[in-house]
């Protein structure tokens, strides 16, 4: 039985978050035989079959700026390594040490442990920040292209050649082009991004977002 946890993250003064819950599917992806990694091709096949557009594989560095996507829902699959991911609050300083380990961030949110095999389904508007990645590595785009699509004549062959080192994730999107918004924006517009037809992992089953993301996505205008 797959463990599914959901987290309701309400609007803050700086980020919209979403009326739809963040979903964390724990250890839902199988590991590649004789390794602790997940097979990028298998994950690509799964997401693509369910109409989610795979855009990248990134190897993450020690931390990043908290951000959200205003035009698309995001699915992140952990392929290798471990990390912490903070959801639901904005960073309030460009100082990466202070906004990761100090107090330069909004109050609230949730910090989740991420490891190979996990999948996060992130509604448009939900702020997120990956940090404390293990093994240590430098940030890098591992898939061919510029991070907005797998730019290869044969994506399957290209992904089969990706060498997974450090903490790596595959990102897929539904609803529109992904952008990088640190704070602000038109909250109501973000909340109106349409609900996907299929869950990236469970497809047409009610087990995932189809049964847990109800309604149109619009919420009241009140801010926390």
Describe this protein with a few key phrases.
25% strand, 3-stranded antiparallel beta sheet, single chain, alpha+beta, Jelly Rolls, 224 residues, disordered C terminus, 7-stranded antiparallel beta sheet, 10 strands, Cupin type-1 domain-containing protein, Cupin_1, RmlC_Cupin_sf, globular, 14% helix, RmlC-like_jellyroll
What does this structure look like?
InterPro entries: Cupin_1, RmlC-like_jellyroll, RmlC_Cupin_sf, YjiB-like. This is Cupin type-1 domain-containing protein. It holds the Pfam family Cupin_1. The chain is an alpha+beta fold. The protein has five helices and ten strands. It has one domain: Sandwich (Jelly Rolls), CATH 2.60.120.10. Strands 1-2-7-4-10-3-9 form a seven-stranded antiparallel sheet, covered by helices on one side. The longest helix has 10 residues. The protein is globular, with a radius of gyration of 16 Å. The relative contact order is 0.27.
Can you summarize this structure?
The chain is α+β, with helices and mostly antiparallel strands and 224 residues long.
Architecture blueprint of SSEs:
Blueprint: E1 3-7, E2 22-26, H1 40-49, E3 53-59, E4 73-80, E5 82-87, H2 96-101, E6 110-115, E7 119-122, E8 128-134, E9 140-141, H3 155-160, E10 168-174, H4 187-191, H5 209-212
Antiparallel strand pairs: 1-2, 2-7, 3-9, 3-10, 4-7, 4-10, 5-6, 5-8
């Amino acid at each position: 039985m797959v463990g599914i946890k959901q987290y309701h993250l309400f609007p803050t003064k700086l980020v919209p978050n979403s009326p739809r819950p963040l979903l964390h599917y724990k250890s839902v992806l199988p590991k590649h035989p004789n390794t602790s990694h997940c097979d990028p091709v298998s994950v690509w096949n799964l997401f693509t079959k369910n109409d989610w557009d795979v855009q990248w594989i990134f190897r993450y560095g020690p931390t990043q700026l908290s951000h959200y996507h205003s035009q698309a829902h995001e699915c992140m699959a952990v392929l290798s390594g471990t990390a912490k991911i903070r959801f639901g609050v904005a960073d309030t300083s460009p100082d990466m040490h202070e906004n990761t380990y100090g107090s330069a961030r909004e109050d609230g949110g949730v910090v989740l442990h991420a490891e190979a095999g996990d999948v996060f389904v992130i509604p448009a508007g939900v702020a997120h920040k990956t940090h404390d990645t293990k093994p240590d590595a430098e940030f890098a785009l591992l898939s061919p292209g510029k991070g907005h699509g797998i730019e290869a004549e044969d994506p399957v062959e290209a992904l089969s050649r990706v060498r997974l080192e450090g903490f790596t994730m595959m990102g897929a999107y539904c609803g529109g082009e992904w952008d990088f918004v640190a704070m602000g924006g038109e909250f109501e517009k973000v909340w109106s991004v349409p609900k996907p037809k299929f869950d990236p992992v469970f497809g047409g089953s009610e087990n995932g977002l189809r049964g847990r993301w109800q309604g149109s996505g619009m919420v009241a205008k009140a801010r926390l």
